[in-house]
């Protein structure tokens, strides 16, 4: 099976090259036959990669420990489900998953457009096939998951198998970790599709909004997956790493945020191009950057150039990635320069207070956020080049910049959509913003007297309130007008209104999601924690909560042994729940793992970690965090998904006879 | 350049300058920057080491961990160089942290006058260590 997998994977390389070459030839000669051949190449690449993935799955499930990847990432006692998902637990396997998704997307795109866009499709397939070729080289020659274990005996290398594997890293034995990588990868890889269309538009000179319309759903889907992938990563860190938070500006986290920032900027600025024919070069640049940053993110995680807690080991892929990213960047810039004359704006900016300028400032802030995160992430590398000292900037540095930028963006979320195109008069502004501003000011005063003294937190709550107000008013006003004209009841009017312009109202729903998430982020300003060493019967306090250690339990199964501390938790003297943090020790990997216990309410999380045993073994050390509003982050992410799906629905068109007017 | 464009440019420049200011001001803060060094490099820094926030990486010296209630002391090594660590942080101590294990450790904090390193954060590199070298059990 390993040989079969190897052979299948080996075929991917020539197939990718064939696809790229025929696609390019089809573009130059405009011959349908060649395009058809390239299309078949894309299908074939997907087919062989799918079979290779199945072969690796077979090896994982049957525990073939003569394969290094299987031996390194699974063991006999591992539950079947985790054996299957070990496909992306390790470096080589997850790279195969990446490659597989690329081939899948290239096949889907080739199929979707089999009867249309024949002018640009050759270059679209060509661009994706180049990416495919690159990843096939990595998967086949540098990080092959089908590599067997071998040892040197005398002068010959001999294959061997181990009795049992080393098991799956305990940190990865968690549901959020299982779906996080594929979702994030789909987000990363999805960016190759808009990129390929942009490059094809640049090569062919068909620079209208055609490529933008064609890739709108791809861009949005990709963005949705990227968003969910990032949040799941945070969720995983929160429940699995046991330090009480979900975001630490770790290089790997930043790597996933970077393409998200540029993708979000693009989703906004593209509206200006469609409406006013401005920012053409800029949109191209954003699509290209999103793709490059996605590849860069993969590079950062795997090259070991920046050290990170959950990075893969230095894998020797660094130089290959650096060359690929470098060449892609240079070629993209050259193409943009070559077409710059055809990308002149149709109109000029008219007023500082207008929808256009709202979008421009939005983009400026996203750009600055991207540069800041990139700068901070690469600072160890930059500082080593210039000063010889490797200097890391910590979370406070990122927060110092990103909190103001984030709040400014959040403010624009409320202001921007209410500004008219071209110019907004002072009168209109007063009408739109008067009450929301007044409401926010009142809220700040109330919060201040209730005891919220943190300036940033007050600002964040005020802005959240303001934005929420403006969005709700948008929905209600629209629905009222519609009700008056159509005679529908309010809810029907609200639904029809949204369905007639899903992009706009889906966008609003996503804005609501961002507000909810920001409330969650702001909760960080009020976190508190305590640490205690307890024996059975001891108790301690955190805020209004009392914790009493009831029992310390030791038990074990095939996979791990565990110690559990069972505590009773009461608030203001009333018992509300038990909370039981656990510490596990996995036999196969010889790794301990912390299982936190979290008591969640809308208002706050109580997060308990068993950090260790005392010397005598009678006592355990327990750390308890009180984190307000954390669940808002997850709820916000859910709303974001709803909004994204809604924005992808086709607009509802009313028949002429009924309904409107 | 027309008047509106000028206004927009001025607005943008103000925002850009504000962000640059935040970036620079953030860098000056003692707490946000840390110098990555290995154990031997810390010793080579001499007196200068005491003025910096350091991120020191080394291997945990087996059997060196001493826990006393909530206190934790241990030693990290690199070749012949050793560094004594006193943990003053609040976060839970990482999982790979006990006397039986091979762990590569990164400590963040400051070197004090008595030559003991006061660590506010400890990271044990496990996920990467994990995949590093696969050695056959026996030959």
Brief descriptors of the model:
heterodimer; A: 661 residues; alpha+beta; six-stranded antiparallel sheet; four-stranded antiparallel sheet; 19 helices; 13 strands; disordered C terminus; B: 139 residues; OB fold (Dihydrolipoamide Acetyltransferase, E2P); five-stranded mixed beta barrel; 27% helix; 35% strand; elongated
SS content category of chain B: alpha+beta
Strand order of the largest sheet of chain B: 2-4-5-7-6
Tell me the fraction of residues in β-strands of chain A, as a range: 5-15%
Described by the principal axes of the CA atoms, the overall outline of chain B is elongated
Provide the CATH superfamily of the largest domain in chain B. Nucleic acid-binding proteins
Task: Walk me through what this model shows.
The complex is a heterodimer of chains A (661) and B (139). Helix content of chain A is 62%, strand content 13%. Chain A has helices spanning 2-29, 32-61, 68-73, 80-85, 91-112, 121-142, 175-190, 192-204, 210-241, 251-276, 280-303, 318-338, 355-387, 395-415, 426-450, 455-486, 490-500, 502-522, 630-648; strands spanning 150-153, 156-159, 390-393, 528-534, 539-542, 545-556, 560-571, 574-579, 582-586, 591-595, 597-600, 604-613, 620-628. Chain A has 19 helices and 13 strands. Residues 309-313 and 656-661 of chain A have low confidence and may be disordered. With 661 residues, chain A is of the alpha+beta class. In chain A, helix 1 packs antiparallel against helix 6 (121-142), helix 5 packs antiparallel against helix 6 (121-142) and helix 17 crosses helix 18. In chain A, a hairpin with a 2-residue loop joins strand 7 and strand 8 (574-579). Among the domains of chain A are: 1-173, no CATH class; 526-631. Chain A is globular. Chain B has two domains: 1-33; 35-128, OB fold (Dihydrolipoamide Acetyltransferase, E2P) (Beta Barrel). The relative contact order of chain B is 0.14. Chain B has 139 residues and is of the alpha+beta class. Chain B has helices spanning 3-28, 39-45, 127-131; strands at residues 33-38, 54-60, 66-68, 71-78, 81-87, 104-111, 117-125. Chain B has a five-stranded mixed barrel with strand order 2-4-5-7-6. Chains A and B meet through helix 3, helix 13, strand 3, helix 14 and strand 4 of A and helix 1, strand 1 and helix 3 of B. Strand 3 (390-393) of chain A pairs antiparallel with strand 1 of chain B.
